[in-house]
Write a structure and sequence with these properties.
Helices cover about 25% and strands about 20% of the residues. The chain is of the alpha+beta class.
Length: about 120
Amino acid sequence: MSQTRMFLLSLLALAGLALAVQSAAAGTRYGHGPIIGYVTADSHYGNGSVKGAVRNTPVGRQVRLPSGDWTYCRTSCSETLRVQTVDIFGNGDSMVGYGTMQNECGVFGCLIWSWPH
């Protein structure tokens, strides 16, 4: 066998190995990692609870909604899941603040500021 033919066969075998490794890592395709855990979100208004998977991406964590869509976690993955699902109309049946941190509780929980009457 000539050296050129041996080189081409080796290159073809290396390409096949690279494709096999890529398909074996299908969960990390497009930079999305495998599922690293699950979070549960409980409604603040008695609308039940929902559970969603969490995964890492190069720019942050994502939580899977019951529809199968993935959305980036904001304050926390459980808060994002709660606001996007069970408490979506918790803002007085208004969509104001939907998809933002406006309806999410912070690190210290849901703090409500009010003046005594």
